[in-house]
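Write out structure tokens for superoxide dismutase.
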Amino acid sequence: MSKMNEYVQDVFKWNDEMKKFLESENVDRNNELWQKLDSFTEVMNRMNQPLNAQEINGIHEQVEGLQEDMENYFRERSSLGNIFSTQEPFISAGKHVLPPLPYAYNSLEPYISEEIMRLHHDKHHQSYVDGLNKAEKELEKARTKNDFSLIKHWSRELAFHGSGHYLHTIFWNNMSPSGGGKPAGSLLKEIEKYFGSFDQFKKQFSEAAKQVEGVGWAILVWSPRSRHLEILQSERHMILTQWDTIPLLALDVWEHAYYLQYKNKKADYVDQWWNVVNWKDVEDRYLKASELKWKPY
Ligand SMILES: [Fe+2]
């Protein structure tokens, strides 16, 4: 095979791979990239005779232009964090693991004791990871056997332990030994825009946490649809959950999060908790989440 033939074959293959990639990304058929790749395929299909130097140069130029367009597309998509989604590492059913605590167990003292952090992270969070893995495996079994007689039970377990695992994973990073104070930058502006002021936001968040019915969470979320922040309460982990939102800041007000140290003074725990809030982490989550936009209704 001549060098030129090899080159043409390679370009053909690349063109085909790019189309498959756009397909996997659900890129609209009318998108300019699709049109360019399609018209290039047509050019390549018409080439069944030897090419002169001018024609070869023309193809080179077109290939280079297309490669640049695709690279720009990759760059834009990777800034959203989910490029090559089919090749990204993912958690298969039943394979969740307990994330390590991002700081020492005693480093949130005096606000949250080492004893609480050890129990909360090593025992309680671990039990949600185990429960989620169990639910996923049982549902996998149900799919294999085509037996969904226990679907209600395992779906409930999936929501309970899944929300427990994901919220705790957010919660650990939402806190830091060097936390406290106020957020800065665009998150602060967004808080002031929607809640009036940081103090008004803090008051509403604290009240939502203190008045959770039974056990649960207070959660600051960004709504990609209404495009504003909101504060929600969540009973247990998932009851009252507002789907379609992204948790940014989560405060655990289950007894296991504070009782050993604060006893029945949940309100004191909530007030003291603000001293360990990692606003940098909340802002990172907000910036990432706010990239996501759906049609507003
Ligand atoms: Fe908890």
